[in-house]
Structure formats: C-alpha cells, structure tokens
Specification:
By secondary structure, this protein is mainly beta. It is 5% helix and 43% strand. The chain has helices at residues 80-87, 238-245; strands at 9-13, 30-32, 36-37, 40-46, 61-74, 88-93, 99-105, 112-118, 123-139, 146-153, 155-159, 180-184, 187-188, 192-200, 225-233, 249-256, 268-278, 292-299, 311-316. It has a 19-stranded antiparallel sheet that branches. The longest helix has 8 residues, at 80-87. InterPro entries: Phage_tube_2.
Length: 321
C-alpha cells in the first residue's frame, strides 16, 4: 500500500449538529479548501507512581482525550459556513440570485462534524462535536487573505467512507487584497499596509465526566475577545493621539468584486467593528527606509449601532450556509 498523500486529502464540514457529537441525519457536507491542518485526537498517558520493589516503570494508564487543532486556508466568498462557526449567529435575507448573510456574536456556537479524508487510503477521520475556538484573517497590500481557524472537539471516529460522499464543493476563488478597502472612524484611509484581526471564543475544554470514556461532555463558550492591529504609513500622529487619549474609534474593511451586489462574480464581504480602542505604541525606526506605525486594538460592545462587538456582512449566491 502506498503512503497517503496530502495532495489527495480533503476536509468536509457538516451542517450544524442537532445533537452535539452526532452527525446530522442530513449532513449537508461542504468541502473546505485548505492549505494545512493539525486537527487530531490525543489521549493522555499517565505514569504510575506505584512502588513494587523494583526500579522498573509500571504500566501507565490512559487519561483524558483531547480533540483540537487548526485549519489554515484562504478567505473566499463561499466561506460563509466558516464565518458562522466563528460568530455563532447569522441572519440571511434575499430571494436569489443574491443573498445577504449578517453575522454577529451569538449567545452560543453550533457544533459541527469535521472530516479529514485520506482518500487514497479510504480512511476518513471524523471529528465529532467541534466548535470554533478562534477565527481571524489578515489583509495585506497584495495577495490572498490567510484565514486561520482553531477548533475543539468531543471525539474522533475512523471510518472507511465519508459521512457525506456527495458533499458540495463550491470551488475556490480566494479574495485578493486588491479588492479591499479600509475605513477608520468612518473615513476611507489609503495609507494602511496591514490589518489583522481575530475573534476568540474562549471555549472551555475541561468538561469531562466520569463514565464518558475520556471524551469531552460538552464545550461551553466563554466571553469573546476581539483584537487585532493596524499598520499605517507614519505620516501623521492622528491615530497615535487617538490611542494616547483612549478615544473610541471604529474600523471597517471590505472586500468587493464587480458591483458587489452578491450575484455570481459580484460578491462582497464587509467586516465592521463599531467600537474599539487603539493601544498606544510609538513608531520604531528600524533602518533608513520609510517608517510604519503599528497600533494594536481591542474591540468591544457598549452602545454601538449594530448591537455587537464584531459584525460581518457577506453577499453571495448561497441561499443557506
């Protein structure tokens, strides 16, 4: 038998699990294009401290099972399900051929099954009861937008066939940085060289119960932490002064193709943070070249108009995610 090849592997994400840790009856599998992944299950081996008149080690015992890992990919207009996994809440409007999906911080996150398929070996690793612990991406002056997602799960099964052999593959046409625009405080700013952000859900991965076979019983959510950084050409102290004074600000970055109306080839994604504070951080002189100013920031919700600390609006042709 030949060694499995990463080039033949695939990842499939189910629709939301109705019962946590159980693949939905109608799985609604969606193929996820990816660059690399580290999703896996590990079981603790706990050493024995028993004394038995010998310096030889005693047999260890098995402990808790940890299901977790990361998936790296490129953000594209068809990754609404991935955004839903991170945000937890979506409202979809429209009647076709375009739909508008509005994502906000939800009270809870859906559970999903994530399958890692080694198709050349016909082995499919099903990670049940997965939740997104962290999601974020980066916008640079050129190239695609790297999307990073961290997950926790409840258990893993190994099967000889996919849980959804007819999983939908929407293809992959990644957003390009050329399609981006940035607003700070409601004003377009054209001196930004990088924007990074992440949404952390602070999942509790320590819920284990006696009789559960070492598996997680559930994965409760914690309070979100939304943070990032913006790097601009240092040609003004305006943003630095806002950081120094702790002035509330806002940030919006959008990605748009064609008309941006959501029809095929005209998709749009707008990421909004109504309320945030920039962290004061002075510019650094590294060499004789142009100087940049990098300011970390933290977003929150107090009385922002959208009622959430982070919101994404995706316009595409998908009726459901």
């Amino acid at each position: 038998m030949e060694q499995a090849s990463g080039g033949n592997a695939r990842i499939v994400i189910s629709g939301a699990e109705t019962t946590r840790g159980v693949i939905p009856v109608t799985p609604a599998g969606l193929v996820m294009p990816f660059e690399s992944e580290s999703l896996g299950r590990k079981t603790e081996l706990l050493k024995s401290n028993i004394i038995r008149s010998s310096r030889n080690a005693s047999k260890p015992s098995r402990g808790k099972r940890e299901v977790s890992g990361n998936i790296k990919t490129e953000l594209s207009p068809t990754m609404g399900r991935q955004l839903l996994m991170g945000y937890g809440s979506v409202v979809t409007a429209g009647a076709g051929p375009s739909y508008t999906h509005t994502f906000k911080i939800g009270q809870s996150l859906p559970y999903h099954t994530i399958e890692k398929g080694f198709t050349d070996l016909e082995k499919y690793f099903r990670y049940l009861g997965c939740k997104c612990n962290k999601v974020g991406y980066e916008v640079n002056p050129s190239g695609v937008l790297p999307l990073d997602m961290d997950f926790m799960g409840m258990d893993r099964l190994i099967e000889t066939e996919s849980f959804d052999p007819v999983a939908v593959d929407l293809g992959h046409d990644a957003w390009e940085a050329f399609e981006a625009a940035i607003k700070v405080g409601g004003n377009v700013i054209d001196t930004v060289s990088a924007v990074k952000w992440s949404l952390e859900n602070n999942l509790d991965g320590d819920v284990y119960c006696i009789g559960g076979g070492g598996k997680r019983y559930s994965i409760p959510e914690g309070a979100t932490v939304i943070s990032g950084s913006i790097t601009v050409l240092f040609d003004s102290v305006a943003l630095l002064e806002a950081a120094t004074n702790g002035t509330e600000n806002s940030l919006e970055f959008s990605l748009s193709r064609g008309t941006g109306d959501g029809t095929a080839g005209n998709e749009k994604l707008t990421q909004t943070f109504d309320e945030l504070i920039f962290q004061e951080q002075d510019p650094i002189i590294k060499d004789k070249k142009g100087i940049l100013l990098e300011l970390p920031w933290t977003a929150y919700w107090n009385n922002g108009p959208n009622g959430t600390s982070a919101m994404a609006v995706l316009k595409n042709t998908q009726a459901t995610l």
